[in-house]
Amino acid sequence: MDRRQHGPDRWRRAALCVGLLASLAGVVSAGPSPGGPAVRLPEGEFASDAWDLVARFESGHMVFSQAVVTNLGWGDHKAAVVGLVVTPDEKVQVFRRSEEEGDWKLSRDGLRMDLRSIVFDRTQTPHRLDVGKDEFELGVEWQPSGQPVWPAELPQRCPIEVQEISSDASGSLWSLGMPGPTKLERGHVALTHRWTSELEASCLVRRAEVFVLESDLGIYFTEILTTKGETHRWAAVRRDGVVKYQGTPQKASLRWKDLASGYPSAGAIELEVDGMQLHGQVSEPFFRFDLLDRVAMPFRNVLATQTEPRLLLARARLTLEPQAPGTASREVAAVVKLDYANPVSAASEAPRAPAPAASGGGG
Fold first, then answer.
1. Measured in whole angstroms, how far is the alpha carbon of residue 90 from the centre of its chain?
2. Of 8, 27, 176, 270, which is most buried by a Cβ count within 10 Å?
3. CA-CA distance, 258 to 63, in Å (whole number)?
4. pTM score, whole prediction
5. Which residues contact 138 (CB under 8 A, 6 or more apart)?
6. Residue (of 287, 249, 303) closest to 46 by Cα position
7. Whether residue 14 has pLDDT greater than 60
8. CA–CA distance from 64 to each of 67, 250, 291 (Å)?
9. Domain ranges for the chain
10. What Cα–Cα distance (Å) separates residue 320 from each residue in 221, 249, 252, 333?
11. CATH of segment(s) 35-358
12. Percentage of residues in the chain with pLDDT exceeding 70?
């Protein structure tokens, strides 16, 4: 049989396959979880995969942890965890661990990172972060919501996904000199996932994040300043255990101070999202960290020609204005996290009016 007679059939089948793949791609892109729950082994010289956990407890304790797999520096697939616990009297206890490829373990499903003395484990419910040092022990566990949200409207060269907006958490804390562990009860956890095949400095200057972690209300807000000078904002709201909103906030403004430092801290927040209005002041950062400190020399000097990253963490008290007649305003606690890929100029931080939003979408 002349194979040329099958040409039209082949083209039709190819077109059908392309159409099917396009349809599947549309389904995937519309889904809430393009990042997925698994830790990725990054590919590319500057690639990385990072998981940031923020937890706040009614006792006044706060926990931050960043687990990352990176190819920066010598060798690929190095793993590191850096974190801290802040006590109610603002004392900071830092913990960290890093391992070369082959010296740490990642479960087959990508849900458990084991760096010996620090384990980030989401293979079972509840999910856990465990730190076991001779002089310090920390355990945080949280109930996964199963409701990840993805800011599809934000630039996707340096994507981020919110795995947990505000999920119930508990834990325990012990350090040298304490008679026994302290229970951390009635807490809430936020968890974000970032991944990139390039330096974040190639696509953004700063990523600001605000985490409202209350028993009946969780809010995640982010503002991104790109290398082109563009500002993008996005928020998600979880109320009574359900994601109620995700999209551009109706209004949002971050005011900055310490402009001459190149790494300004946040001074005030105004936010209107899903009919709620929040405003308040941000405290002085309780933690500042040069992220290049964990990169070995001489590669650190090479990287410093392209990026001078800093991490700042601060607490905030925000006033939530009444949503309905007859209801009183209330105070809510928040954590503010600033990731700088490079310093910013003071001129770029001139005060601006709260930005009106394009129409947002419900969750």
1. 22
2. 270
3. 25
4. 0.86
5. 63, 85, 95, 129, 130, 131, 171, 172, 173, 174
6. 303
7. no
8. 10, 29, 15
9. 35-358
10. 15, 15, 14, 10
11. 2.40.370.10
12. 82
